[in-house]
Amino acid sequence: MSPPSPSPGSTTGTSTPPAPTHVAMHPALLLIGMVLVGLNLRPALSSVAPVLGPLCADLGLSAAAAGLLTTLPVLCLGLAAPLAPRLARSRGPELTVFLVLFLLAGGLLLRTVGGVPGLFAGTLLAGAGIGIIGVLLPGIVKRDFAHKPGAVTGLYTMALSLGAAIGAGVSEPLRLAADGRWQPALGFWAIPAVVAALVWALQLRRGSHALGRRGHTVRGLWNDPLAWQVTAYMGLQSSLAYCVFGWLPTILVDRGYSAQSAGYLMSVSILVQLITAFAGPWLATRGRDQRSTIALMAVLTAAGLLGCLYAPQEQTLLWAVVLGLGQGGNFSVALTLLVLRAGDSHIAAHLSGMAQGVGYTVAALGPFAIGLLHQFTGSWDGLGWLFGLICLATLAAGMGAGRKLHVGAVSEPVQ
C-alpha cells in the first residue's frame, strides 16, 4: 500500500523521499529514453510558426484560421491529458509512451497531406500524443527518481527546450532546401519521433513495475486549493509559451525581419531556455520554497515579451534571450511542482493529469486570442496589455503554488 499523503497544509521539509526500489533497468537507460522522448514533444508546436506565412498563403488560411492552427495542438494537450492515467493503469506508462510516440509520428505526417483537413487532423493527433506523454513522465520521475527530482526534471525540461529550439530554427531552412515547400519541412519531424520510440522500446521490459498497474486510486485532488493553484500556474505560463511558439516569428516579420531571421531569433530564445530549464529546478529545490524562483522567472518573461514587442530592433536579440531565460525557468519549475507538491508517484501522475489537462485547455486560449486580436485590429499594439495581464496572473498563481506544501489528496490501492 502506498504511504498516505500529508494532510493539506503540511510541509515537506522534514521528510526525505525514499530512493527508488523497483527500477527494472539501469537508470541511465531511462534517462536517455526520457531525453529522446522530451526532444520530440515540442518540434510539432514550434516548427509551424517559422513557415506559417507560406503555409497560409498556400492553403488560403485567414489570420483567425492561423490562430486556430496554433491553438489546436495546445487545446489537444489539455483534452487528451485525462486519458493518460487511464492508459497507464491498463497498459503501463512505458508501453503507453511507446505506442503514443507512433501516434505522434503519424500525426506529424498526416498534417502534410490532404490539404487543410489533413493539416488540422494531423495537428490534432500530434497534440493529443504530446499531451498524453507529457502527463506520464512526471509520475515516472516521482517513482524512479524521487531522491533527485529537481535534477532529473531539469534534464528532461532541457530536452524539451532543445527540441523546441531545433524545431523553430531548422524548419525554415528545411523549407528553403525543399524548393520552398512547407510540407517536407513539417513532415521531417516524424523521423526523430520514430527513433525515440525505438530507443524507448528498451523500457518495455519493465512491464510488471509499470506505474498505475497496481490499481491505485487518488481521492481529494480536485477539491484541493493547492492543486488548483499548481494547475493555474501551469496553464498561465504555458499560455505565454504557446503564444511565443505560435506568433513570435510572425510578429518579428511584421517588425521588419526576414522569415529566416525571425525563425532564428525564436530559436535563440528557445535555446537559451536550456540554461534555466536546468537551473530553475535546481534553484527551486535549494530555497525555503519555490516562490522566489517563480517571481524571478515571471519578471524575466514579462520584460522579454515587452522588449520583443516594443524595444528598438537592435535590442531584439537581447530581449529574446531574456524572454527565453524566463520561459525556460517558468516551465521547468511548473513541472517540478508536479513532483514536489505530490505525496507519491500516483498522486504525481494524477496531479500532472489535472494540471496539464485543465492548464493546457486554458492555455489554448492565448494563441487563438492573439489571432483574433490581430485580425480585428490589424496591428500588434494591444498585445502588450494582454501579455502583461497574463504575466501578473501567472505570478499570482505561482505565489500560491510555490509554497512548501503537499496537495491534500490520498492515494489508495483498489481492493
TrEMBL record:
Report TM segments.
23-41, 61-83, 95-113, 119-141, 153-174, 186-205, 226-249, 261-282, 294-312, 318-340, 347-370, 382-401
Query: CDD domains of this UniProt entry?
Result: MFS_NIMT_CynX_like
Q: Which PANTHER family match?
A: 2-NITROIMIDAZOLE TRANSPORTER (PTHR23523:SF2), PTHR23523
Put simply, this protein is called CP family cyanate transporter-like MFS transporter
Its organism's taxonomic lineage begins at: Bacteria, Pseudomonadati, Pseudomonadota, Betaproteobacteria, Rhodocyclales
What organism does the record attribute this protein to?
Answer: Azoarcus indigens
Tell me where on the tree of life, at the top rank, the source sits: Bacteria
Q: Which GO terms label this protein's molecular function in UniProt? A: transmembrane transporter activity
Q: What's a GO cellular component annotated to this UniProt protein? A: membrane
Pfam family name, one? MFS_1
The alphabetical list of record keywords is: Membrane, Transmembrane, Transmembrane helix
